[in-house]
Structure formats: C-alpha cells, structure tokens
C-alpha cells in the first residue's frame, strides 16, 4: 500500500501511458522519502509552494500532459494529470498553479491561433512559463457575465487598453502570465443590441510584469502555498495578438476550460482524502483511552471513516470517468455532467474526511505538527472555488433532471 494512501489504482484498467505516469510519480514520491513531510511543513510554515516540486512536476510531464507532442508536450491527456495530481495530493502536495496552468493551456488549445500555440505551449510544457487565471471581480463572482473589466480597442485596432479590477487571483506573483477575462463589449451594449449574454467577453494573456498592472496581496487563506491578489488594471496595453480566441467570443473558449479545471480540482480533493484517512487510521490504531484497546476499535470512529472511504472511491471513479470522457472528446454535456458531479462529490467527501480525521485525533488534531488543521481552509475552499457547489447542483438539476433554471 502506498504510504499516505488508503487505496491503490488498479493499473490493469489503464492504458500503458497512464501506467507509466503513475509508476513515474510513485517512484518520484517514494524516492523523496521524508522530504515529502519537509516540503509540506515548508508549505505550512512559509506559505510557499516549493519550486523544486514545481520543477519535479514539469519533469514528470504534468505541465505538458494536455499539450500535443508537436508543441513539446506528452499528450498523455487529462487522465494522466488526474492520476498524478491525486497522488501528490495524497501527501498534501497538490499544486494549484499546475491546475490553473492546465486550464489556461486548454484555453490556448481551443481558442489560440497557430502563432500563440507556438509561443506558449512549448514553454508551458518545459516549465519555462506558468500561468494564473483571472475571472473573479469584487462585484462579479459566480455570475461571470456581470464582469466589468474593460478592454477598449485602440485606434489602430492592434492593441487594447485594459481597465478595471480583479480579486482573489491565485499565484499571480509566481506566474509569468495571467489569462484575464475582460469585456470588449459592455453589458449595456450587449442588452441594447439584443445580443446573447455570452457575447462581449474576450480573453487576453497578460504578462504579470506589464506596466499599469498593480498586484495587491489579499489576506486570504485557502490555497496552501499560494497567495491571492487583487489586480488593478490602469490602462494596461496588450497587443491584439494576446487575445485567446475571437474578440467578443471568449465565452466559448472559457467554457471549454471549465470542465478540465473541475476534473483536476476533483482529483486533488480525492487524493487529499487518502491523506486524511491515513492520518486518522494511523493515529487511531496507536491511541488508547479506555482499557487496553485502541480507539481504532470503536465503531463510532470506524463507521464514519468507512463511509468516507466508500464515498471517496465513488468520487474517484467518477473523476476518472470525467477525465476519460474529456480525453475521448465526448460531447460537452457528457463531460460536463461527469465533471460537475465529480467536483461536487469529491469536495464534499474531502471536507467530511478532514473533519472526521481531526475528530479522531481529539486535541492532537489542533496541534500544528499533526499536519491537519492547516489544511482545513484549503479543503473547505473546494466547496466554494473554482465554483461553488450550489452552482454545480444547479447544473445537475437542470441538465440531468430537466428542472427549470433556478437563478
Ligand atoms: C482562496 C481563493 C482562491 C481563488 N482563486 C481564484 C483565481 O485564481 N482566479 C479567479 O478568477 N478567482 C479565484 N477565486 C474566486 C472564486 O472562484 C470565487 O470566490 C467563487 O467562484 C465564488 O464567487 P464569489 O466569491 O463572488 O461568491 P458569490 O458569487 O458572491 O456567491 C456567494 C455564495 O452565494 C451562493 N450562490 C451564488 N450564486 C448562486 C446561485 N445561482 N444558486 C445558488 N447559490 C448561489 C453560493 O453559496 C456562493 O458561495 C478564489 C477564491 C478564493 C477564496
């Protein structure tokens, strides 16, 4: 049994490429030995995801998993990314910047032109550039269509001036570019011209060091190892060449990247359940409170953990199926259903898992050296971001049950 994991992937069910990825990741993680705990402690203590881990994930081909070989990627697919991320997360070492870069990669693959693919994809695969993603604004969260950050075309039509604010943007201090969702047509104009609400959004790859962009660190918790920023755009000039997809048609590119984001987020939650279960069972077998038997003998401890284990496996298989459906290019609604359900179940079971693991530890659950309480906020975040679970349920109610839209 893998250290830190309560389950094994049955490798016979996987293609050679996936077996190779799992074996390479396991080999790397095993070889790290005690360094895994050191890395995790560094994340907790300095709130900084170690560069060495990022580099290792690049070497393992994870940043290039979705990138065609012709652009320097491994083309291993999102299932490879899922399997790898799940295993890193089983040690508390899931990597949000890798998740965001994967999402942006998808946007470039879907909406980018030949030049943009040649510019960005090989550098993403080789780890030379990492990317953040900025959609959320203080006054437009879940309802992305309300976003206001304006991108105004300049007279020559070759560049755009960006003005406005984004908030909660993760890892923008570590990223080289941030994929910014902007408005090239105001919402008022969209409605006065009777255009669909999805019209008017445009995605730009913006260098994080560009003139006019101010990054202000927010006092947030939620992503261990990375910080969140408010971004203030003051006449930030970006070339039209940096628009990913057609001007005003960014919504379709954006939507193509949402399912992969949910799938990889689900794999991180599923993997983290291994971490929490492993901590709980190890501690419980060792801790004796009444008589000579350890607390692991109590059914009140066993049943909740057993339920979590069963729910984890359901979430895990659904996450794999979502990844497989995506890799097989199944229709968007099929991938969407699996992805949303996987994200929902995995984030809920991960939160239950950390709760029960802390409970099994009693007061020890609140000792920092136990390595649990620091993960409470990041585990809880998965129910709220990248999308809150209510919106996921809205989607399932509408698409799976044929119920009317509730919002
Ligand atoms: C730690 C952290 C990191 C983040 N990183 C990023 C990032 O890198 N890039 C980025 O763009 N954003 C990021 N975000 C923002 C995140 O995606 C949003 O916070 C999230 O999508 C919710 O939006 P909101 O905060 O505006 O909530 P609101 O839209 O104000 O919603 C509040 C609550 O209302 C409920 N609700 C809203 N709409 C509905 C509905 N239609 N039906 C039922 N219930 C509803 C939900 O319970 C929701 O949680 C991050 C957030 C956090 C906390």
List the helices and strands and how they pair.
Layout: H1 16-32, H2 35-46, H3 51-59, H4 78-89, H5 96-111, H6 114-125, E1 131-134, E2 150-153, E3 159-170, E4 177-183, H7 187-192, E5 201-207, E6 213-217, E7 228-239, E8 243-244, H8 250-286, H9 299-327, H10 332-360, H11 376-381, H12 389-401
Helix pairs in contact: 1-4, 4-8, 4-9, 5-6, 5-8, 8-9, 8-10, 9-10, 10-12
The structure holds flavin-adenine dinucleotide (FAD).
Describe the structure.
There is one protein chain. This protein has 407 residues and is an alpha+beta fold. It has three domains: 11-125, Butyryl-Coa Dehydrogenase, subunit A, domain 1 (Orthogonal Bundle); 131-249, Beta Barrel (Butyryl-CoA Dehydrogenase, subunit A, domain 2); 252-401, Butyryl-CoA Dehydrogenase, subunit A, domain 3. It is built from twelve helices and eight strands. It has helices at 16-32, 35-46, 51-59, 78-89, 96-111, 114-125, 187-192, 250-286, 299-327, 332-360, 376-381, 389-401; strands at residues 131-134, 150-153, 159-170, 177-183, 201-207, 213-217, 228-239, 243-244. The chain has a four-stranded mixed β-sheet. A four-stranded antiparallel β-sheet has the order 2-3-7-6, with no helix packed on it. The longest helix has 37 residues, at 250-286. It is globular and about 80 Å long. The structure holds flavin-adenine dinucleotide. Flavin-adenine dinucleotide (FAD) binds next to strand 1, strand 3 and helix 12.
